Amino acid sequence: MRFKAVLLAATALIGASAYGDMFKPSKAQQIKLGEQASLELRKKERVLPESDERVILLRRVGSRLLNAMPERAKDWPYTFDVIQSKEVNAFALPGGKVFFYTGLLDKLTTEDQLAGVLGHELTHVWKEHWAYAYRDAQKRNLLLSLGLVVGRANSNVANVAGISSQLIFDLPFSRKHESEADDGGFDSMLAAGYNPNGEADVFRLLQSLSGSGKNPEFLSDHPADKNRIAHMEDRIRKANRAFPAQRKLPWVR
Question: Does the reported pTM lie above 0.90?
Answer without folding.
Answer: no
